[in-house]
Amino acid sequence: MDGNGRWAAERGLPRIKGHEAGAEAVKACVKACGELGVKYLTLYAFSTENWKRPREETEALMALLEKFLREKTDEMREKDIRLTAIGRLGDLPHSCRVELERSIAATSNNKRITLVFALSYSGRAELVDAIRLLATKVKNGQLDPDEITEEIVHQHLYTNRWPDPDLLIRTSGEMRVSNFLLWQISYTELHVTKKLWPDFTEIDLIEAVRDFNSRIRRYGAI
Ligand code: IPE
Ligand code: MG
């Protein structure tokens, strides 16, 4: 979800106003995914690298996340949306974690859509965490290195309960992956739009899905 800062700058507004508009775009996008029958939506809300931003901005983003969770949990429960999160969640401020855990627990029986917030997430950090788990199992004699397969690696990722994404949408025109789901996107179709995230609407989502539907996926075969 890139481009909140530029969206604000274009309007002569502080960056946080862009993030607030971005939060509105999140609500619209989740609703549109529900209507399209998307089963899993992972939103890259905050990267491990985003902690390098000025404290004022990271605090505002965390406050915005907390507000979103406080306001939207009941609605997610009613609309059969299961909220969950990936990343180094221990990095989040305590009050934010409390709210996040509350939302996750409140929606844990829901089935229609799984909404995954990537928070203090990076693909490399996820791989490091998986490697630590695997190395510990080897050290303790619970795992033979020769038994490590792609499936075993998958089982040790934060995303072990879900399929790999079919489609990755990047807004604001940047042609970068920026440390997102590095293992999982091996065969994901990429869609880059110039739209800044706060301007991303249901129409843009439909356009991305239409683009996806035009792709021929061979997974290395012919
Ligand atoms: C994405 O918008 C939102 C977060 C990273 C939280 P940016 O804040 O990266 O916006 P730009 O890239 O400065 O426009
Ligand atoms: Mg950016």
Account of the 3D structure:
This protein is of the alpha/beta class and about 220 residues long. It has a single domain (about 5-210), classed as Decaprenyl diphosphate synthase-like (Undecaprenyl pyrophosphate synthetase, 3-Layer(aba) Sandwich), CATH 3.40.1180.10. Helix content is about 45%, strand content about 15%. It has helices at about 5-10, 15-35, 55-80, 95-105, 125-140, 150-155, 200-215; strands at about 40-45, 80-85, 115-120, 165-170, 190. The strands form two sheets. The protein has a three-stranded parallel beta sheet, sandwiched between helices. The protein has a two-stranded parallel ribbon with strand order 4-5. It is globular, with a radius of gyration of 18 Å. 3-methylbut-3-enyl trihydrogen diphosphate binds near residues 3 and 61.
- The topology string of helices and strands comes to HHEHEHEHHEEH
Biggest β-sheet description? 3 strands, parallel
CATH architecture: 3-Layer(aba) Sandwich
Q: Please state the structural category.
A: alpha/beta
Q: CATH class, please?
A: Alpha Beta
State the oligomer: single chain
Query: What separation lies between the terminal Cα atoms?
Result: 33 Å
Please estimate the helix content.
40-55%
Strand content: 5-15%
